[in-house]
Design goal:
33 strands; alpha+beta; 9-stranded mixed beta sheet
């Protein structure tokens, strides 16, 4: 098949520019206006239903009369038809064809051919063609030549002085006469010599120089396109290459053309082109052959062969020119015109020029690409080309833009855009895009599409397709071809092989644009193409069959040829009809599949095509006669449609064959032999003249038995006498009629059927057939597959009409109409009286007889009787009608199976009588009607037809209903009323209800609601009459009851407002007392404690928690409540004393099993004692005061003075339950409490608490006025002032001493140091001691500590306080007064109120405590260590020095974990002097790696001669590189602690409480070294 060109291919070269402006100048054109393209009208589009889609050939035949007029049409399948893509995309590889777009268009190719011809002409003359520039654009030489020739030629135009007119026709602006002169000059220089050459003048020409040098520079060199050299490619003769026959050229035809050119037309002899581009037809081999075959007689002198062929003289050898083509010689002065100089480059003589230019050209074709693609590679290339060409994503380029750009490119001779097209890919080699039954891995859902008639693998061989009777798999016709396209890839104008149908399916990708010409306009299309480009058709008469030429549809439309277009998108079919020319191009990367098919109506067109091919001498794809005969041999397998069409076609074939054989016999051919032509290959049974594939007969001759001709061309076989000819036949003339008869019988069975049907349908013929006999005729047509025709449709309609009448009679069910009862309910359709009459008439008009028609007359008689009875009943009054008579009449009408007009009226009259009787019976009853009953009666009466009696009854019922509904609405409004007189309104409404004679649903409800409201008001009155306000809970309970009332009482809202005020007070009080997430209720926090439990367990609040320890009720008077709280306070004091005594007896031995704290575990870590309950608590279980996280040196009093006694006192969470607001804040709460109208238990608890706090405050103030305590307060104030001054002085001394130490090594500063030493606060003796210590450090690293170092070494995370004697800050208070303070503080700490007196008493008591006995903060982990250690000392040498100074037991220090020191490190330390501190250490690269392991995570592994180390003081004693923990030798002093990250996270700010050793001598005390002795810990809060 020749039609299918699917997907676009990609560009090999792209010389065109994607960003073209609408109007541009052509490189070789005379004028190019803004390109315009008028799209042709749209081809029809069809949308088959799912039922229509089941049979493809039937549907296409159905739409043929609508679509054939446009040549092509588009079919969109139903949405649910989506076949899978079955091609293996990974294995598919193909080589596309190359398409240069501007060489496809007919007119453009003619121009290119002409320019190549002129260029070749001048090339053979030794010159190069340059296109002149006029008005800044190149001259269109083809147009100039055509216009001049149309005006009579160069000489005639010059004679008539028409060059100005020529310039205007060329599109140059008028008014410039010089342009005409310039055009004349260029024509005379470039084209006129060619004209002279064509008319046969054998003279040489020299291309003269241009008018001036500037023009010569501006002229554009013309580069020949060489179309033939690139595109004269013949398809390989492979097994599937059906189309390759199109490119075969008959050798005899070529000889005929050459002979014709030689004898008839000298111009064609000189210029015989079969394609565009230069024809270098003289190959080297042929040139050598010419030279070798040339014979010249040389009698003497070998140089005698160089003689001038014009003058036949051999003299003047210096002026002798040798032809580069044939070696003939000419004098330069003998040439016409004579040459003034030797030509540059190659030179050809006049004979060679004529021979070279006159050579015929090969047929134009497509060149194969040089590379092979996969689908992915081709798609990438195609998308890249389109996106770069249009400078936008491929899918957003409008189809109209691509269409216009395509026709602009193909119409421009200088737009060299090249694309590739993967066309004609054989499905037998690559697989089909549709799933087939033989497909591998066929999925269950794919079977539907593998069997579908629209599958292009199945469509050509369907039952009603003629191609199914061809055994061979003709690629492209019976076997689909696939097409991989790209943007601009083109399939040129053509029609299908044998003028068959074609169908194309676009599997996926971008759209494909189609153009079609109706088949009836094919000859007009061909004439238009030939007239537009006659030069091409002179060289290639069958050019339209080669699929290599395209022409703008606008040109065809202007010539009167109708053209239609359509855009085929993915999932759509395009169908082309017989002989319809079509072309198109691809919008982008896509994949399509196409195939031919031939239904029965094609046979006539197929025979016409064979005759057309014979006239064109074109090869056939298959033998049409063979196909027809094959179908005739087995007519039983043919459908009637195909059999009838085959019979008509074969009848014409047999008559033609008889005529041809008779003519052959008359010519004298008497020999005949049978030949099985179907066994011969097609190329061995083709007519030698017309190339038709012979089957019925052929003629051969004895002189050339391998050559045969058809009977039409027997005269062209040879020159022998016809007696030598032999007729080779397939069937005799007697056998052909037998075959024809079998077809005729198949077709005539239809004729007999037609006659019987016509008799049955004839209205003039009496009816004799029954419905069953009529249906038998219809079934016969279906069984024998008779063709669809008007008669068959008429018969179908007649049967349908008869069956409809029979169904109507069955629905009427007349035979059973007298057996129906009154209660029978029939849902079958009933006719009206008018329809019954029409139906009776229709039965008479049927073409068949129906037995059921007899019952219609009986039905009409019964209907008349009913009409009479019903009319009488309807005329009577309603009160006079009898229900039984009405029911009898209705029963009679129901038995009639037709619609009776009066039947409905009788039924309505019956309903009226029944309703009226029901109303009258209700009135006689004593019971009242409910609202729903009244509504139902009114509704039923309203649906009845109007009647005076019914209307009166309805009016009375409606009045009663209105009064009842109005009362109900009032009742509902009262229930929603929020006014103060609700009960009065309810009482009125109840009295009104007694006057309404109907049942009112809300009446009983209002009685009950009123009783409940009065009972609630009574309870409220009792509550208000009490002596005291009600308690919160009692009022809340009463409000809940009020909410349950149906009536709204204003008293409920008032009580709610009281309750909201009380809740607001409780929330305010809770915010003042309770902490966030507190486990205590407000009542618990304000009430005295009933238990002390330090176990940290979460408890759930119960309902009793809201009342605390008291269950206060409204019957309690205030005195009773006060006595309850007083009793609870006494119990609380007893309880706390017992708890303190129990906790004070606990053993503080860490090895004891006694439990402490909220966690109920033993002693470990940092623990602090609660001031109230005297229990001990861990730092990681409860938050401790700020002092617990501070590092200090000295006793606790110093710390307390430093902190101003703030954050020093500790109460456990059980003792310190609330925020303890100040007393003035509580007084404000009590003031707001007095404004409440409800008693709140928490308020009474708060009152008791306030009274207790104020009483305690009075007692505390009275005690503090004691003279002893007054003196103690003054002394404590002086302690604070003295401490502040000492601390300031110590900081000053530390700064000065530090500067002195830094300046010690600088001798120049010694004098200055001695000057300021007296002002440093350090005596000279101490200073000398420091100097000695420094000198000692320089000489021996182990003696590197002095007392000044301790005073000066301060780090960011340690506190230093002035060194004073601990007894200096101790207050002496008499024991009896101290005991009073302790008793008073015991009760004060219980109070949940903050009082300044509590803090003042605690400071006095704390300052008077014995620091050696009363320890309240202990670090039990530090105490558990057996050995005292010097803070910051990390070396064994440092510990030994400490032992020398402090005289502490050696065994304890030897147990200290230290890092061993190498001998080399010790010696190096001596050299370095004081740089080697005990706090830090340095290591060298030579130390043992196993010993020098840094404990830091991600150790940096510092290298070098000296590496600084530091040891953790937090308890792990691990060593770290200073660089790994972010420190340097200058960041940390010797006496400062370093705690690693691990220890700092586990210790919650551990407080060093072991600051002094009780066993250390006074000498060691001056060094202020830390101590781990438990006895020395006096941190008390």
């Amino acid at each position: 098949m020749t039609t299918k060109l699917d997907k676009t291919a990609s560009p090999v070269k792209t010389h065109g520019n994607a960003k073209h402006t609408p109007k541009q100048e052509s490189g070789y054109g005379y004028k190019e206006e803004a390109f315009e393209f008028d799209p042709p009208p749209e081809a029809p589009v069809f949308y088959p239903t799912e039922e229509e889609f089941n049979d493809p050939l039937e549907y296409i035949n159905k739409i043929r009369k609508y679509a054939e007029g446009s040549g092509i049409c588009k079919i969109k399948p139903p949405p649910n038809w989506q076949p899978p893509f079955a091609v293996d995309v990974d294995k598919l590889r193909f080589t596309p064809r190359i398409q240069r777009l501007n060489e496809l268009e007919a007119k453009t190719r003619v121009k290119l051919n002409f320019l190549d011809q002129i260029a070749k002409f001048w090339e053979l003359q030794g010159s190069t063609l340059k296109i002149p520039m006029v008005e800044k654009r190149c001259i269109d030489l083809y147009t100039l030549h055509s216009i001049v020739q149309s005006q009579g030629g160069f000489e005639q135009v010059t004679k008539d002085r028409k060059w100005s007119k020529i310039a205007i026709n060329m599109g140059y602006p008028p008014g410039k006469s010089s342009i005409g002169t310039i055009l004349k000059t260029h024509y005379e220089r470039l084209l006129f010599p060619f004209d002279l050459f064509k008319v046969g003048k054998t003279m040489n020409f020299k291309m003269t120089s241009p008018i001036n040098e500037e023009n010569e520079k501006a002229d554009k060199d013309y580069k020949p396109h060489g179309i033939v050299g690139r595109m004269a490619i013949k398809p390989p003769p492979e097994k599937h290459a059906r189309r390759s026959k199109r490119f075969e050229v008959d050798p005899k035809l070529e000889d005929d053309v050459k002979e014709e050119c030689k004898d008839e037309n000298k111009e064609l002899k000189r210029l015989q082109f079969y394609g565009a581009g230069p024809k270098m037809a003289i190959s080297k081999d042929k040139d050598d052959e010419k030279r070798h075959n040339k014979t010249v007689n040389y009698d003497f002198d070998p140089l005698a062969k160089y003689v001038c062929h014009n003058c036949n003289r051999g003299d003047s050898e210096e002026y002798m020119l040798l032809c580069d083509g044939c070696d003939d010689s000419y004098h330069t002065f003998c040439l016409m015109p004579p040459l003034g100089e030797i030509p540059k480059g190659d030179w050809r003589c006049p004979k060679c020029v004529a021979e070279e230019v006159s050579k015929p050209m090969e047929a134009f074709g497509f060149e194969q690409a040089q590379r092979e693609y996969t689908l992915q590679q081709f798609g990438d290339m195609a998308d890249q080309f389109k996106s770069e060409y249009f400078n936008m994503p491929v899918h957003v380029v409008p189809t109209g833009v691509v269409e216009k750009e395509f026709w602009r490119i193909v119409s421009s001779i200088d737009e060299d855009v090249t694309v590739e097209y993967g066309a004609d890919l054989h499905t037998m080699d690559h697989g089909s895009g549709f799933p087939t039954k033989t497909s591998l891995n066929l999925l269950p859902g794919d079977k539907e599409y593998a069997d579908s008639g629209w599958n292009l693998n199945n469509l050509p061989v369907l039952e009603n397709s003629v191609l199914g009777y061809i055994n061979a798999d003709i690629s492209g016709m019976k076997v689909p071809w696939m097409y991989v396209g790209m943007c601009f890839a083109t399939f040129c104008w053509h029609n299908e092989d044998h003028w068959s149908y074609s169908i194309n399916y676009l599997h996926w990708g971008e759209a494909k644009t189609w153009y079609g010409v109706p088949g009836k306009m094919a000859e007009a299309f061909e004439e238009t193409m030939k007239s537009a480009a006659p030069e091409l058709f002179q060289s290639q008469p069958d050019l339209l069959h080669q699929l290599v030429t395209i022409m703008n549809p606008n040109i065809l439309m202007k010539a009167g040829v109708p053209v239609y277009r359509t855009d085929q998108h993915a999932g759509e079919f395009v169908v082309t009809f017989p002989r319809a020319y079509h072309a198109g191009f691809n919008q982008g990367y896509n994949f399509a599949e196409a195939v031919n098919f031939a239904p029965a109506d094609w046979l006539r067109m197929g025979r016409e095509c064979i005759l057309h091919y014979s006239n064109l001498r074109r090869f056939c794809v298959f033998s049409h006669d063979e196909l027809v005969c094959k179908m005739a041999l087995d007519p039983d397998k043919l459908g009637l449609t195909i059999a009838a069409a085959t019979y008509q076609d074969m009848l014409q074939m047999v008559e033609t064959e008889k005529t041809l054989r008779k003519n052959l016999l008359d010519a004298g051919v008497s020999n005949a032999e049978r030949e099985a032509f179907e066994l011969l290959p097609d190329d061995e049974r083709q007519c030698d003249t017309c190339k038709t594939t012979c089957f019925l007969s052929a003629v051969t001759c004895k002189c050339s038995p391998d050559v045969l001709v058809c009977l039409r061309h027997y005269a062209n076989l040879c020159s022998c006498h016809p007696e030598n000819y032999t007729l080779r036949y397939r069937y005799t003339l007697d056998e052909l009629p037998v075959m024809l008869k079998s077809l005729k019988l198949k077709a005539e069975s239809f004729d007999h059927w037609v006659n019987r049907v016509k008799d049955a349908l004839d209205p003039k013929t009496p009816k004799t057939l029954t419905l069953q006999e009529l249906k038998a005729l219809l079934n016969e047509a279906d069984g024998k597959k008779f063709p669809k025709c008007d008669l068959l449709q008429t018969l179908t309609d007649a049967v349908d009409d008869a069956e409809k009448c029979a169904r109507v009679i069955q629905q009427l069910d007349l035979n059973k109409m007298r057996t129906r009862t009154r209660n029978s309910s029939d849902t079958k359709y009933k006719l009206t009286l008018k329809e019954l009459i029409l139906f009776n008439e229709e039965l008479d008009s049927l073409v068949c007889i129906l037995e059921e028609a007899k019952s219609i007359k009986d039905l009409l008689d019964e209907t008349k009787k009913f009409e009479t009875t019903s009319k009488n009943l309807l005329e009577m009054k309603l009160s006079d009608c009898s229900i039984s008579d009405l029911e009898t009449c209705i029963s009679q009408g129901n038995n009639l199976c037709i619609e009776l007009p009066n039947l409905r009226s009788i039924k309505l009259r019956l309903r009226q009588c029944v309703w009226l009787n029901d109303v009258l019976s209700y009135k006689k009853k004593t019971e009242v009607l409910g609202l729903e009953s009244i509504k139902n009666i009114i509704k039923t009466g309203g649906q009845l037809p109007p009647n005076p009696e019914i209307e009166n009854e309805l009016s009375e019922l409606q009045t009663l209903l209105t009064r009842s509904e109005e009362w109900e609405q009032k009742a509902q409004d009262i229930l929603k009323d929020t006014g103060s007189e609700v009960l009065i309104e309810v009482d009125k409404l109840l009295k009104e209800a007694g006057q309404i004679n109907s049942y009112l649903p809300s009446e009983e409800f209002l009685f009950e609601a009123m009783d409940r409201a009065r009972d609630w008001l009574r309870q409220l009155e009792e509550m208000n009459s009490a002596e005291c306000y009600p308690y919160f809970n009692d009022m809340e309970e009463l409000i809940k009851k009020g909410h349950q009332l149906s009536l709204h009482l204003v008293e409920v809202s008032k009580l709610e407002s009281y309750l909201e005020t009380a809740n607001a007070w409780k929330e305010k009080t809770s915010r003042a007392f309770l902490r966030k997430n507190s486990t205590f209720t407000l009542m618990e926090a304000l009430s005295p404690r009933v238990q002390f439990n330090n176990v940290n367990k979460c408890r759930k609040k119960g309902p009793e928690d809201d009342h605390g320890i008291f269950n206060l009720t409204s019957d309690m008077d205030p005195a009773t409540v006060v006595s309850l709280f007083k009793e609870a306070e006494h119990k609380e004091m007893e309880l706390i004393r017992n708890v303190r005594a129990s906790n004070s007896e606990k053993n503080l031995d860490p090895n004891d099993t006694t439990t402490y704290c909220v966690c109920q575990r033993g002693l470990f870590g940092l623990m602090m004692q609660c001031e109230l309950c005297k229990d001990w608590f861990h730092s990681n279980c409860v938050p401790l005061p700020k002092v617990a996280s501070s590092k200090y040196k000295g006793n606790f009093t110093s710390v307390a003075l430093h902190l101003g006694f703030k954050d020093c006192k500790f109460l456990c969470p059980t003792c310190f339950r609330t925020k303890r607001p100040r007393l003035d804040a509580i007084l404000l709460l009590l003031m707001s409490l007095q404004k409440l109208y409800v008693r709140v238990p928490e308020g009474e608890a708060l009152q008791s608490l306030t009274e207790r706090a104020m009483n305690w405050q009075d007692r505390a103030r009275q005690l503090m006025q004691h003279p002893e305590l007054e003196a103690a307060k003054n002394k404590l104030s002086s302690f604070s002032q003295k401490y502040s001054e000492a601390a300031a002085r110590q900081r000053t001394e530390k700064i000065i001493t530090s500067e002195l130490k830094r300046a010690y090594k600088n001798p120049e500063l010694h004098a200055r140091v001695n000057e300021i030493a007296p002002y440093s606060g350090v005596n000279q003796e101490d200073h000398r001691t420091e100097e000695n210590s420094i000198v000692t450090d320089s000489s021996d690293d182990s003696k590197g500590y002095a007392s000044a170092d301790d005073r000066m070494g301060e780090h960011a995370y340690s506190l230093h306080f002035p060194k004073f004697d601990n007894s200096e800050y101790k207050l002496l208070i008499p024991p009896e007064i101290k005991k009073q303070i302790e008793e008073l503080l015991l009760e004060g700490d219980l109070l949940e109120v903050y009082l300044d007196e509590t803090f003042q008493l605690w400071k006095l008591l704390q300052a008077s405590r014995d620091s050696d006995k009363d320890a309240i903060l202990i670090d039990f982990d530090m105490h558990s260590k057996n050995l005292p250690s010097k803070r910051g000392r990390k070396r064994r040498s440092d510990e030994l020095e400490l032992l020398k100074k402090t005289k502490v037991v050696k065994n304890e220090l030897e147990n200290k974990k230290v890092k061993p020191q190498k001998a080399k490190e010790i010696s190096q330390g001596k050299k370095e002097g004081t740089r080697r501190k005990g706090r830090r250490r340095q290591s060298t690269g030579s130390e043992d790696d196993d010993e020098d392991i840094c404990a830091a995570t991600g150790c940096l592994k510092p290298s070098g001669e000296n590496v600084d180390w530091v040891q953790c003081d937090g308890g792990c004693d691990k060593w770290f590189h200073m660089a790994c923990v972010g420190l340097s030798a200058q960041d940390i002093c010797e006496d400062e602690d370093y705690i690693c990250m691990t220890c700092s996270q586990n210790t919650y700010g551990t407080l060093n409480t072991m600051d002094s050793l009780s066993s250390v001598s006074s000498e060691c005390s001056t060094l202020t070294q830390p101590s781990t002795s438990k006895d020395s810990v006096q941190c008390k809060f």
